[in-house]
Specification:
Elements lengths: L4 H4 L17 H20 L11 E2 H6 L2 H4 L5 E6 L4 H5 L9 E8 L3 H8 L10 E10 L13 E11 L1 H22 L4 E4 L10 H8 L3 E5 L5 E9 L1 H6 L10 E8 H12 L2 H11 L2
Antiparallel strand pairs: 1-3, 2-3, 4-5, 5-9, 6-7, 7-8, 8-9
Helix pairs in contact: 2-7, 2-10, 2-11, 10-11
Length: 285
């Protein structure tokens, strides 16, 4: 008797190695890679080439982007063992008791930061620039909850830099893509305004956001936000000296997908990981 590809995958009783940390079993791994493959469809529609962002972000660069004024709790720092502790480490001393030194870098909490910092001082021209990337992102959270809220996760983003009108079009097409893909996958999503701007919450820009929201999220029925469309205005263009030709500081916008959260939403909608993977395969072009 033949066996479907889904049932042929091994079932493993994998345990979480810690809070906010998880090893995906073969079925959920197939879901994650398959979903990310479908999410690249937006990049294909918008002719956004694939790039790989940096694995670390400088504290100095993030400071210039008001990162710590907005998200002081999220940062996960990268550190190294102090030289005076290396002999003890090699001799088998408990690593947790040895001194660490900061490197001046953080692990990324969103994929777009590394791409934007890499474009500092560039002129993307009036035609603008689009890029697509999936990054491993990390966030300190007050609590963790399965695939809904992780310490480390994958974020797919499609980023635009260029004119104000180009940024609006980018997000309109991104929103359409999210809803169309959700329908193909059998997901019911709701769209709502989010409240985490990319700049100082107490400043004039934050007050403007209350009148003109810049971020909207698409959420599964249990409230898990699995995608967002983010309009940065010309904030990053001004801070990083990125220009759009004669239009001045570039406007930017991104469409972001939390890939593990899409896995969660698929299982929520279809009952089991195996049934979700079968639906995913049916939805492929």
């Amino acid at each position: 008797m033949s066996t479907s590809p889904t049932t042929a995958l091994p079932k493993l009783g994998l345990k979480s190695p810690g809070a906010g940390l998880i090893t995906l079993d073969p079925v959920r791994t197939a879901l994650l890679h398959g979903l990310d493959g479908l999410l690249t469809g937006l990049a294909a529609q918008l002719s956004a080439p694939e790039v790989v962002g940096p694995p670390l972000l400088s504290v100095e660069g993030l400071t210039r982007l008001d990162y710590f004024r907005n998200f002081p709790h999220l940062g996960v720092s990268a550190a190294r063992f102090a030289p005076e502790g290396l002999d003890g480490l090699a001799a088998g001393s408990p690593a947790a008791e040895l001194p660490l030194r900061p490197t001046g870098h953080l692990l990324p909490s969103a994929t777009c930061y590394g791409l934007l910092l890499s474009l500092e001082g560039e002129d993307v021209g009036a035609a603008g620039l689009r890029l697509s990337a999936t990054g491993r992102c990390f966030r300190n959270e007050t609590h963790y909850d399965g695939l809904r809220r992780l310490w480390g996760f994958h974020m797919r983003e499609v980023l635009y830099l260029g004119t104000k009108d180009g940024a609006v079009e980018h997000l309109d097409r991104g929103s359409e893509f999210v809803q169309e893909l959700a329908a193909r996958l059998g997901l019911t999503l709701t769209r709502a305004t989010a409240d985490d701007p990319f700049y100082d919450k107490g400043g004039s820009r934050a007050k403007l956001m209350a009148l003109d929201p810049v971020k909207h999220e698409f959420s599964a029925p249990d409230g898990t936000a699995i995608a967002s469309v983010n309009r940065h205005r010309n904030f990053f263009g001004e801070r990083l000296g990125i220009r759009a030709g004669e239009h001045g500081p570039a406007y930017s916008a991104c469409v972001a997908f939390g890939v593990e959260r899409w896995v969660h939403a698929m299982i929520l909608a279809h009952g089991t990981a195996e049934e979700a993977l079968d639906r995913l395969r049916e939805a492929r072009p």
